């Protein structure tokens, strides 16, 4: 069990300020990732993102860290649309924190199955090391836990669980984080991704009322 220190809480306040106020917080995060803080827990969990590869087809921007910085910048442009910008921004930063532990290369294909579930638990551990604020942490954790539902719901995959998702999170917040996630790629198609989010919303509203 990790114990929160005053120095770590200071890092929370500094990062939080940049996440909520910078037009491109990814630039600040990129700078601090070069420093000694990324050699200390819990920031070692973010450092691992730099070393984690992704599918070149879906993520030509490279590592999970490169993708994360793009997602954070996208979220900064849309944080005013969120009912809780602080939850959205920290979820954007930590949404793929589970990928280092789940990424595998199988037959030339890079996958990260269940990184949403693993990431939710790691995000809780990360945030508890910085801050004693249980309710806020759980909101961030749940958003990370359900952020892959957009893919599952739109593609009618068996992992889709609309009813459980809607019990824990606001689907509009999932959609907002999901849009940032999908736009945080160097080969993005904005119109196509926005359409995907609309399909997710429509199906979640419709199917959530059935049965």
TrEMBL record:
The keyword Nucleotide-binding applies. Gene3D superfamilies: cca-adding enzyme, domain 2. Keywords: Nucleotide-binding. InterPro entries: HD/PDEase_dom, HD_domain, HDIG_dom, tRNA_CCA-adding_enzyme. The keyword Nucleotide-binding applies. Residues 60-195 form the HD/PDEase domain. Pfam families: HD. SUPFAM superfamilies: HD-domain/PDEase-like. PANTHER family: CC-ADDING TRNA NUCLEOTIDYLTRANSFERASE (PTHR47545:SF2), MULTIFUNCTIONAL CCA PROTEIN (PTHR47545). This is HDIG domain-containing protein. It comes from Dehalobacterium formicoaceticum.
């Amino acid at each position: 069990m990790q114990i929160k220190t005053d120095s770590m809480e200071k890092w929370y306040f500094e990062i939080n300020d940049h996440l909520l106020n910078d037009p491109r917080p990814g630039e600040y995060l990129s700078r601090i990732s070069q420093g000694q803080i990324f050699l200390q827990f819990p920031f070692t969990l973010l450092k691992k993102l730099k070393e984690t590869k992704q599918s070149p087809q879906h993520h030509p921007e490279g590592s999970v860290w490169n993708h994360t910085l793009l997602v954070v910048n996208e979220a900064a442009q849309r944080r005013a649309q969120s009912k809780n910008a602080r939850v959205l921004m920290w979820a954007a930063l930590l949404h793929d924190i589970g990928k280092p532990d789940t990424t595998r290369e199988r037959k030339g294909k890079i996958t990260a199955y269940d990184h949403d579930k693993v990431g939710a638990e790691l995000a809780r551990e990360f945030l508890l090391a910085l801050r004693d604020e249980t309710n806020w942490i759980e909101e961030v954790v749940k958003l990370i836990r359900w952020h892959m539902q957009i893919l599952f719901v739109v593609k009618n995959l068996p992992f889709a669980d609309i009813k459980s998702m809607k019990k824990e999170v606001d689907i509009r917040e999932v959609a907002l984080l999901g849009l940032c996630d999908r736009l945080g790629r160097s080969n993005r198609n904005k119109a196509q991704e926005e359409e995907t989010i609309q399909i997710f919303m429509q199906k979640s509203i419709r199917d959530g009322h059935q049965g």
